[in-house]
Amino acid sequence: MRRFFQHKAHKAGMPPGSVVYVGEEPPEAARITVIDYGPEHYEEREVDDLSEVEDYRDTGSVTWINVDGVHEEEIVEEIGARYGLHPLLMEDVVSTGQRPKMEEYEEHLFMVLQMLVPEDGGVVRGEQVSLVLGPHWIVSFQERRGDVFDGLRHRLRSGKSRARTSGPDYLAYRLLDAIVDQYFVVLERMGDSLEDLEEQVIEEPDQETLEAVHELKGELLFVRRAAWPVRELVNALQRAESELVAEGTDPYLRDVYDHAVQVIDTTETYRDLVSGLVDLYMSGVSNRMNEVMKVLTIIATIFIPVTFVAGLYGMNFQWMPELQWRWGYPAVLVLMAVMAGAMIVYFRRRDWL
Q1: What 3-state DSSP class applies to 276?
Q2: Residues near 305 by beta carbon (within 8 Å), at least 6 away in sequence
Q3: Is domain 12-284 in CATH 3.40.1080.10, yes or no?
Q4: pLDDT tens for residues 5-32?
Q5: What separation in angstroms does the CA of 78 have from each of 51, 73, 122?
Q6: Is residue 68 a contact partner of residue 26, using CB atoms and an 8 Å limit?
């Protein structure tokens, strides 16, 4: 069963702003990559010394710092200290399982989303992605390596992206858009699974089919929990009274908002269809049971008069004239066959067979 809430009991009693990692620890070590770009230049490299990160804080170009692996708390704390991030913000970064939200601070904006990645077997893996938008930079925190931003990185390298001539707010939009677009990929796979399950429920409903339906229902609930608050997040970002978001970015944010609404509508539609599959499965099982009971009832009904005749002549009374008749036994067999045949013909005319 999918766990919707992370264990946070060990944080009970700690002061606000405590940077304590909550979640599953990935096998690989944390990695920090820096992308610094402008209209005429592009730089991308992996950083080993955190002191180098601070060099990009006050540059005139746009800097994207990505941290893969928030389980190493000291890295998060040091980056937060070098970029002046609020302690409560850093606490949310390392506390995975946060509800998607947007919070406005004096010098930066903080956003939390769930990035969904489809895996083998129809399972959807969720990963928390935290974005901090500053005057000339964006810091993104991810739980592990691997994300949905490879297309954006490729366009930045090629120099064909609008982001090369725009500010960090446009880069934040592109990151949000990549995460939301990934929801459509996940929902498309779920739609294919839904069609296959519908055929199985109609043709051969069994216990494995019902388990698959319930698993898909749980995955859709997980997607809904991740996608539903994104609409509020984008809406809050549009209404934020911050100079960090330029007016020219509003149309793009509205586009992300529309995509989020489409994801929510599709998710709700799929959830209704899955609930209908459960009802269809129960109806199919009930119909199959009714057919079985119908056949058994017809067989029992056919043998009732035959059993009556056999029981009648099975009584041990002394004076039963038919028992002394030479043709009595074959006559009784013929009588039984005629009675059974007559009932079968009657059932067929009534379309019961």
Answers
A1: helix
A2: 336, 339, 340, 343
A3: no
A4: 555 655 665 667 678 888 787 878 899 9
A5: 9, 9, 38
A6: no
